[in-house]
């Protein structure tokens, strides 16, 4: 099982940027695809981006061209660089395996003001 701790959220104005980090424990991290997900108030948790162990990436259409997922296997951390943020990006952001494990971390709140 991989343990996950997300950080880097905050309050920004529309058009701003944030960089999220997810520190993962577990010896299999480097071989496992990892993903970022988000859950807005009153909505289901949705896929945002994923990255394989070798660095191949995929994105939800709503964030393509604005968000970039990356990973550093040496420090078992996954990142999400978020640029050109919009109010509709407001959500709690989580990282997890891709596809996700049943258990989730606490997430990190991202709030974008208009």
Feature tags:
mainly beta, six-stranded mixed beta sheet, four-stranded antiparallel beta sheet
Summarize it.
It is built from no helices and ten strands. 0% of the residues lie in helices and 51% in strands.
Describe what you observe in this structure:
Helices cover 0% and strands 51% of the residues. It has strands at residues 3-7, 10-13, 18-25, 34-39, 45-51, 57-59, 67-72, 77-82, 91-97, 108-113. The chain has no helices and ten strands. The chain has 114 residues and is mainly β.
Q: How many DSSP H or I helices? A: 0
Quick one: how many beta strands? 10
Portion of residues within helices: under 10%
Strand content: over 45%
- Outline the low-pLDDT stretches: none
Mean pLDDT metric: 94
> Main sheet: which strands, in order across?
2-10-9-4-5-6
Secondary-structure element sequence?
A: EEEEEEEEEE
Radius of gyration from CA coordinates: 13 Å
Distance between the termini: 39 Å
Structural class: mainly beta
Major sheet characteristics: 6 strands, mixed
Morphology: globular
